Fold:
Amino acid sequence: MNAARKKSAGKKDLVYGLGATGLSVARYLQRNDISAIYHDASEDIAGLDELQSIDADAEVILGKDTKGLLKKVGRIIVSPGIPDDDALLVEARKKKIKIVSDVELFLGELSASLAVITGSNGKSTVATLLSLMCDAAGMPALAGANLGTPALDLLTEELPDTYILELSSYQLHRLPELNSDVAGILNVSPDHLDWHSSEDEYRAAKYRIFREAKAAVFNRQDIEAVDHIPEDIPQLSFGLDEPGDGQYGIREEDGVEFLARGDQLLLSVDDVALAGRHNRANALAALAMGQLMGLKLPPMLQVLNEFPGLPHRMQFVDTIAGADFINDSKATNVAAAIASVESVEGFVVLIAGGEGKGGDFVKLAKTVHMRLRCAVLIGEDGPDIAKALDGLAPVHSADNMEEAVACAAGFAETGDTVLLAPACASFDQYQNFKARGDAFCQAVEALRS
Structure:
């Protein structure tokens, strides 16, 4: 037995973070008959009953008092939302305690092909598209990680031909190795600067997805991406410009725009079920990744013709008094909110605000103000967005979503779009972006009552 084994003998795993990821780790450890200590810095954990149903004898430590805890610990399995500068993780590194993630554990169990996707925006949509394309082509796939099902829970399903992982910068930052068959980056714009130490660290986390990849897909507008792709692997690009030979992009013929591969016209953009110009880029990225995975065009194009999109992502809710109401609660950063505004026709009554995560609201204001009928602002950083828009567009404030929707409806004119595109995280007022989007939909529904 080596020194490291001796040092950790008799010690337990510490599962740090008891959200959806932590509970998936608990299920994984139980399946493998591994005992653990469970810890969360919060004393109010929604999943505590579920944890106890998974492991009735689990040792659970809640709250910020962790004195002496690391003496019992041989390894920490940390949830992605906990940053590296967390005091317990800093202390653990000083004590040379290994820190791993659920995705690293999943990769250690991998026995199928693997496609991985990241990007500041659009990754859930592309992961879902790609999964549907695989299924339509007769190549069963399971998608998860940052999207929907936690990675370790995918291992309980029947073995697919391929796994598709949507990976956040948090998850990528902690992976020492990521051997994938196809890796794709959709876009990179500043985000999560409250977690990462700098924008450079955030970008480095995103680009590391290519390091061990066997094939790569990238956005032509991202001039840095190519520099991070190994030179000797197959590469495909996509973009909203005209594509080069064998690449993916947009071509126009007789006044109609088409998704295209090189000179080949694939599908009219009017026949793509996903709403919004930015979703054309997502569709092209999925096609490029599907090609590198060996999928044929017909089933992929069928999916694009039929799939209307995920909830809370440019989700059409209703038309009231001639104005469309669209829920894009997943637009949790500035770049996503800009894409949302630019993807709709006519003037926009924008509902925005929340936890800003260090976002550049001045850029948001300068980019979209000409498209705004007005903005209705909510949440913790609503005043910062108001300051950025001062003198550029009319601004109103609201205390909650119901008030914001009613206010927005009052200012919207026929042909306008009332758009929830917050440019912020939701945690100041809601459990997550889904709860915020649901609140928007409920408030729109209330307008008809």
The chain has 16 helices and 20 strands. The two ends are 71 Å apart (CA to CA).
